[in-house]
Amino acid sequence: MARSLCNFCLFALNTCICSAVTSINNKVKVIILQHPSEEKVTKNTAKLLNLCLADCQIIKGESNNDFAQLRALPVSSTVLLYPNEQAINLDNNDALNTLLPITHLIVIDGTWKKAYKILQLSSLLQRFQTVSFANLPKNRYTIRKAPRADSLSTLEAVAHSLQLIEQLNPAPLYNLLDELIQKQTHHMPAHVKARYL
Hints:
Helix content is 29%, strand content 14%. By secondary structure, the chain is α/β, with parallel strands linked by helices.
């Protein structure tokens, strides 16, 4: 029997997070390239961004054919959040000033392995300057384990990016993430919950 879902947040009714959703008027448009395997992951945070950010779009796929919309983006003011050797650190003010104005932020939503695959299959992404951070904020997303120490959830990465680029207050996004964690762990068996606490 299928679980009843909230019509707005699309989580199960017993894990509905609508009470913590706050509308945020971001100036930089966020474009999330979501690997198809992430869509049905209950702990995926991209949909949380879509609930809060006024200007946010999720595009599902893994290659140029799926991401044709990227062709229309302005190359000079669009950046891709990805930590490669060419990336400019957003937390370096001098470096950030060379990028401004930034109008579009592209983020890949998937495991490191899947994100790398999307990058390899999507030559359209090579057109854009990559950005990253020299110093990462503390990972708050304890209920989804990551193999790398420099891992952030998609929500955390976007929240930190927008804070650095446009001084957007990340608190409402972090509050929503905290609500998701609280709702998800509340219904876990004690032995499962112990792994994350």
